[in-house]
Specification:
Elements (H helix, E strand, L loop, with lengths): L2 H20 L9 H18 L2 H15 L7 H18 L12 H11 L4 H50 L7 H52 L4 H8 L5 H18 L1
Length: 263
């Protein structure tokens, strides 16, 4: 689980509730009209912007991956693929069938190699799988960003509605308070939904999208090199190009430290 996402949301919620409780009662900040303006308006605008199929795929997928972490980092993937290349070199492709690979995408590629599929089929199938996944994840981050963009705007709409209602009932002082509450709470709801929830989630999904694109492309290249019976050393060296420069140096330092120990 991605702990930072959960901690950030929990901490932000605690901060808002604490500030509210310091100056009054939590019930003061609950208003049905403001809730309808923000969530009803944002939902309507999102339905207009995106096809229903994209919303049905993007929202749950985005919520799933924003709270989850990849089991393997890029460097760990390089190590795992090099290990699998060593297995294939010693036992042949059929030896990969007995290997327990935790990453589902890498495991799928290893099944293709073990079954002797053509390299062109392997590349096309894995790239199609990668692209479909990235498209749905990108849809998720776009949808959350769209909600984050329109929530403050609907907050302003709610504020204007509340002010119009307030000025239209200036002769009845008992109605001024509720209408003013709608005006102010609509802006508060819109700002909170956008800046504490939707926009941070969209940014997190954007980062995960970039990571998944790199890692899955790395896996595809690694699988194809294993299919072509490349040596484990060559596989490792080729895949290190996907790692940031500092991680490549760390890999080299580890290898150099291991050589004297082996001697």
């Amino acid at each position: 689980m991605d702990i930072s996402t959960g901690l950030g949301l929990a901490f932000g919620g605690v901060v808002l509730v604490s500030l509210i409780m310091m100056g009054g009662d939590l019930k003061m900040f609950l208003d049905v009209h403001a809730f309808i303006v923000i969530f009803g308006g944002s939902t309507a605008a999102t339905l207009i912007r995106f096809p229903l199929s994209s919303i049905m795929h993007g929202l749950p997928l985005g919520m799933k991956y924003v709270f989850s972490m990849r089991r393997w980092t890029s460097r760990e993937l390089v190590d795992e693929i090099a290990r699998l290349a060593e297995v294939a070199r010693k036992l042949g492709p059929i030896g990969l069938e007995k290997e327990n690979v935790e990453d589902p995408f890498l495991a799928k590629g290893m099944r293709y190699v073990a079954d002797g599929y053509d390299p062109t089929f392997i590349r096309d199938s894995l790239e199609r799988d990668r692209d479909n996944f990235l498209v749905h994840l990108d849809e998720g981050q776009k949808i959350y960003r769209a909600i984050g963009d329109c929530a403050p705007a609907f907050g302003m709409i709610g504020t204007l509605i509340g002010m119009v209602q307030m000025f239209a009932n200036m002769t009845d002082p008992s109605k001024l308070g509720p209408y003013m509450a709608v005006a102010l709470l609509a802006t508060f709801y819109g700002a909170a939904v956008a800046n504490l929830f939707c926009l941070p989630i969209a940014d997190k999904l954007h980062l995960k999208l970039a990571d998944e694109e790199i890692n899955r492309s790395l896996i595809i290249d690694g699988v194809l090199m294993i299919r072509d019976a490349k040596s484990p050393t060559l596989v490792r060296e080729m895949l290190l190009a996907y790692l940031p420069e500092k991680h490549r140096h760390a890999e080299v330092e580890d290898d150099e430290a291991a050589e004297p120990a082996a001697a």
